[in-house]
Write a structure and sequence with these properties.
The chain is rod-shaped. The chain is an all-alpha fold. The chain has two helices and no strands.
Length: 118
Amino acid sequence: MSSQKPESSSTPGIPAPGPMMDWWTQQWMQGTNPVTRIQLAWMQSISEVMEQESIFLKAMADASHRLAECYDTHSGDPAKMGECYRNIATELTDHHMARMKKVAEMPDDFRRRIWEEI
């Protein structure tokens, strides 16, 4: 008689994972995936907010630099300084309004992303 051992990939005394284990793994993964996707949507929204703020900060830095240049070149002429200041203030106002428009849209974008993930 030949004494062959049955081939098994499981530990002796513990049955091989069956359909119940597969089902449990699927259920467990389905429970964590939506949370992960929602977190990803949240992180994308935060990334967009940070991008908008960096664009606005860059516009502020550029305006500050141009204002310093205006002061250096037109410091003796108040009319030219006033015109330069008004131009820079108008550009900053436009940047700020674009920023506020984007900020107003962000909650809707965030809600849309969350609903897509749910």
